[in-house]
Write a structure and sequence with these properties.
The chain contains seven helices and three strands; from the N terminus they run H-H-E-H-H-E-E-H-H-H. By secondary structure, the protein is mainly alpha-helical. It folds into two domains: 129 residues, Winged helix-like DNA-binding domain superfamily/Winged helix DNA-binding domain (Arc Repressor Mutant, subunit A), CATH 1.10.10.10; 37 residues, no CATH class. The longest helix is centred in the first third of the chain and has 32 residues.
Length: 168
């Protein structure tokens, strides 16, 4: 097997694993909701993702939120409106440019995010325990390196290298 074929096989394995992990977290979220759990009560998984994005980014504009979520501004606005009604987000006009809408977490949204994060960390802790200390350390080392690369690309404002370029 050539290096490029091996790299593509590895990429597929990683992609499938990341999807499985994301789906499993979604499944855990849904199971807790059905079981009467308190994990972001009355919120859908998508709405929790919006709350998590706002928490991670801090106060941000509606345009920035739409960009982060990879949705249109009207879609982001609709999601924000619902989360404002539910008490999770605060939507305000910017002080400098009154046309700009600023979004931030409410106190309730912050508390719910903390609870959500705790639930996710519990599930990941269980996974790490099942992996054992050696694999857990390796996984953390690899993810740390991936984070460094992504952050460097982001700060350099570069676009990801195309598959064609990376195989050359």
């Amino acid at each position: 097997m050539t290096d490029s074929n091996n790299t593509m096989t590895q990429a597929r394995q990683l992609y499938q694993t990341v999807r499985m992990l994301r789906n499993r977290l979604g499944h855990e979220f849904a199971a807790r909701q059905r079981g009467g759990g308190t994990l972001c009560p009355d919120l859908t998984f998508t709405q929790c993702n919006v709350v998590m994005a706002v928490q991670e980014m801090g106060e941000l504009s509606l345009k920035e939120l739409a960009d982060v979520l990879h949705v249109s501004r009207p879609s982001a606005s609709t999601m924000v409106d619902r989360l404002v009604e539910m008490g999770f987000l605060i939507r305000e006009q910017a002080e400098v440019d009154r046309r700009e809408v600023r979004i931030r977490l409410s106190e309730e949204g912050y508390l719910q995010f903390q609870q959500l994060e705790e639930e996710i960390l519990c599930y990941i802790t269980e996974l790490l325990t099942k992996l054992g200390p050696a694999y857990s350390a390796q996984w953390c080392d690899v993810y740390s390196r991936v984070r460094e690369i992504i952050e460097a690309e982001k700060s350099a404002d570069t676009t990801p290298i195309s598959t064609k370029d990376s195989l050359a």
